[in-house]
Write a structure and sequence with these properties.
Layout lengths: L2 H16 L4 H12 L5 H19 L1 H19 L5 H4 L3 H23 L3 H4 L3 H16 L16 H13 L7 H11 L4 H24 L11 H27 L6 H13 L1
Helix pairs in contact: 1-2, 1-3, 1-12, 2-8, 3-11, 3-12, 4-6, 6-9, 6-11, 8-13, 9-10, 10-11
Length: 272
């Protein structure tokens, strides 16, 4: 891989990881254009680490609040100061529980279909079809009401459905961020809650996927070289900007703006 190729792939990963147009789908297409096969998995893992850092930094306050809440509520439960039902009313503890609940279907699907990942990730035709599907998922969000439920009205059933959708996003061309945020909106969550939950739910999913992928690599091949570091840096910088842009777009209710791009990219992948 040439340095310029690493930078381009890193930029695409950073942009498309958060913008609802499927990062894995774009990486499949570009790696086929560049003729990259050997070492592609190790590179993918490292650039995903770059975008994971973006989520951890941008949502550091929420993540810290969840961790503090878990320790506080655990102490209250052990000390019998509060019942589990009283503790569940704590918004941060409830959010942590919903993230765990949503991660269960994601993990099950991830383990079930992980062995098919190599086949899926080599099919540009599959990417094209799924990008078109993603376009329709995004397009119909324009007809949803502006208001919705916040964390108080967020129930376990919602988290299981969103986690299930996230699990299917292992298929290249299905946008993880786009499909999970859209699922939250379709379930009646408000925009802020749907977006925040989507990105917090992505943390255990990305970490789990990276662990499974690392096991496929030869010993020592995970350590990034200079070219891979360029890709990681590019994915981090562009990913940070893309996440801020997407949060603004979701707040305005304009996710459907990305639908035409997904359709055009999908058709182009099928044709060319």
């Amino acid at each position: 891989m040439e340095p310029i190729q690493a930078i381009i792939l890193g930029i695409i990963q950073g942009l498309t990881e958060f913008l609802p147009v499927s990062s894995s789908g774009h990486l499949v297409i570009l790696q086929n254009i560049f003729g990259l096969k050997d070492g592609a998995l190790a590179f993918d893992i490292n650039v995903h680490v770059g975008t994971l850092l973006v989520v951890l930094i941008c949502f550091r306050k929420e993540i810290l609040s969840i961790i503090i809440s878990l320790f506080r509520c655990l102490n209250q439960l052990i000390g019998k100061e509060k019942s589990i039902f009283e503790i569940y009313k704590d918004p941060d503890f409830k959010l942590a529980f919903l993230i765990v609940a949503g991660s269960v279907p994601t993990g099950i699907l991830g383990l079930m279909f992980h062995s098919l990942a190599d086949t899926l990730f080599s099919s540009v035709a599959m990417v094209g079809v799924m990008l078109i599907v993603t376009g329709f998922i995004l397009w119909f969000t324009r007809y949803l009401p502006k208001s919705g439920r916040n964390i108080d009205g967020f129930v376990v059933k919602d988290s299981l459905v969103i986690g299930l959708i996230q699990g299917f996003a292992i298929i290249p061309g299905i946008s993880r961020s786009g499909s999970t945020i859209a699922a939250g909106l379709y379930l009646g969550l408000n925009r802020e809650t749907a977006a925040r939950y989507s990105f917090l739910l992505s943390v255990p999913a990305i970490i789990g996927a990276e662990i499974l992928n690392i096991k496929k690599l030869p010993v020592g091949s995970m350590l990034p070289d200079n070219i891979t570091l360029l890709g990681m840096l590019a994915s981090f910088i562009t990913g940070y900007s893309a996440l801020k842009v997407l949060l603004f777009i979701v707040k305005k209710g304009n996710m459907h703006f990305f639908a035409p791009y997904c359709w055009m990219a999908g058709i182009a992948a099928l044709v060319f």
